[in-house]
Amino acid sequence: LKSQLNDPTLFTTAGFIDNEFITTSNSGKHFPVYDPANGTEIARFPDMGIEETDKAIQAAKQAFPSWSKTTAKERSTILRNWYNLILENEQDLAKIITWENGKPLADALGEVRYGASFFEWFAEEAKRLYGEVIPSPNRQQRFIAIRQPLGVVGIITPWNFPNAMITRKLGAALAVGCTVVAKPASETPLSAVALYELGRRAGVPKGVIGLVTTHHDTKAIGKHLCESQDISGISFTGSTAVGKLLLKQSADTVKKVSLELGGNAAFIVFEDADIDKAVDAAVLAKFRSSGQTCICVNRFYVHSSIKDVFGERLRERVEKFRVGSGMEANTTHGPLINKASVEKVRSHVHDALDHGAKLLTGGKESENTHGYFYPPTVLTDMNNNMRIATEETFGPVAGIFSFETEDEVLELANNTRFGLSGYFFSKDVSRCWRVAENLQVGMVGVNTGAISSEVAPFGGVKESGIGREGARQGLDEYTQYKYINMAI
Ligand code: ADP
Questions:
Q1: Where are the membrane-spanning stretches (predicted)?
Q2: Do the interacting molecules here have an ipTM over 0.95?
Q3: pTM surpassing 0.90?
């Protein structure tokens, strides 16, 4: 694979500790990385443990005093260099994403640019970390609040955006002067190391960014990052179960914790919606990355008067998808990440069918594929007894429920412990305000299915998370206010 890159050095199978790429682990063990399109092993990474994690933490701790005292402009320049290097190498980085994650190359390229946009954005925001001068309530004192970096932060990222989930966290952390120890998902470490190589070239100083690769010791390293007194913050993107565990493990050291967890997005189509636009948006918001993003739609609520038309048009669109290896030029939808994902999707579909759902398309798996594929599927006549009503499927299955009134659908949409994103389609301005305000989520798409942007605060409410990423607010996760009272 290496030889297929313009710059083969971006294909590195190593962690990065104290400014060195480390290709072996203290335990002597390695873990494999697979191409989900065919199940073959494409790389082996050092399976690191607590010792290596400690080394990375100590290096980050040592680097913190000098990194946190660089000027905002100096940090901005390094982030900007890194951004430029990512764009110069975007084709290679996209290929690496497709190899280990499976998403089609065009989507992978989109992810590389989206990922880079966080370095561009935070290179700019670094210079605007404003504090406050507070009008004094008395004549003898002056009040000021300044913002300071937390210290060393631990970062844990998932496989569904192997590049962008790292840059979104690193960009904000580095902009404010934090140093970092990151642990990428063991399914997708290649993208992380490639980014680190570019970071090194961009001039990130020694010790400022560490990368620990592991599979076997994932739990132990996660616990160690949470419990270490040398780490001041944790930023995690992944499943709700693991997020809750990390929050608990961080309690004893009273860490600042930022969590982007699972969602269960509703997509509501009101009777006055532009159906074609809604179908276009549904295709994106449900099937992008084969349904494996945390803001992917999990439940479609379509007004009963248009449910059949909507279902029919969605079916037509889904049947035009070309499912296959992400490396093939005409592939629109790639495989799922692994066998367990395919199993989960299959069980959700069977469960829905057993409880009375009707299959509009998909649902039937081909017997002789080697990779982790599931056919894009549309189900209708869904009801609340089905698992899809409450559980995140994280796969290419659209289940259509019907409703009659706005109040009813809001109650249905909000009847979940999750609250990441929600979408709806309507042409009634008053309703747009009402529904946007009443959906219990952190992000709402009104007449659109594409909401992610580096300039907007990304995050959830309820059990979907704490904190926001990207935007001006993204800096808050990595800073504390310090109040200074000066007598005169
Ligand atoms: P997903 O279903 O997306 O794989 P996970 O929450 O399992 O979600 O994984 C997200 C990230 O969390 C990955 O980097 C994974 O290795 C890591 N992870 C999984 N379990 C733990 C744990 N117990 N402690 C710390 N990190 C974990």
A1: none
A2: yes
A3: yes
